[in-house]
Design a protein that fits this description.
The protein is mainly alpha-helical. The protein has one domain. It is built from six helices and no strands. The protein is elongated.
Length: about 140
């Protein structure tokens, strides 16, 4: 997969995570601070990815050599994608939410402890910093 396609895949997964976080934010009021922190970190990652996408789409842009290095099998781009896919899977409630609502029960329960949220935010932050560094390296 070329780097731009990999970045676009991460953008799509990030958007899914943000949508799922919004659902939890509305439904599960007791952990809003954790949800907000996670949502903010994913939004920040999206900003960096948008900058990378814009740079690669610019006419006459040079090939992003640092990004190519990050896109190796088991590289940072793939690790970030896997991290976000796991996050999305854990957040996705599937059909259980609709089935539980039929019975008048609250189906959504935030699937993370505060420690897990902290760990996830750190991991996303590391990916964001590496992507920012690659972006800075390729633009100078």
């Amino acid at each position: 997969m070329d780097p731009l396609s990999a970045v676009i895949a991460i953008v799509q997964i990030s958007a899914q995570v943000l949508s799922l976080c919004q659902t939890y934010y509305v439904e599960v009021k007791s952990v809003r601070e954790d949800i907000r922190r996670l949502r903010d970190e994913v939004t920040s990652l999206l900003d960096v990815l948008a900058n990378i996408r814009d740079l690669t789409d610019a006419p006459g842009s040079a090939k992003l050599s640092s990004l190519e290095l990050l896109n190796q099998p088991d590289g940072h781009i793939q690790q970030c994608r896997i991290e976000l896919e796991g996050l999305a899977m854990k957040l996705d409630t599937g059909q259980g939410k609709n089935n539980m609502r039929q019975f008048g029960l609250r189906a959504l329960k935030w699937p993370f402890s505060r420690k897990e949220v902290d760990k996830t935010i750190l991991a996303i932050g590391r990916h964001k910093e590496i992507f920012n560094l690659a972006l800075t390296t390729d633009t100078t």
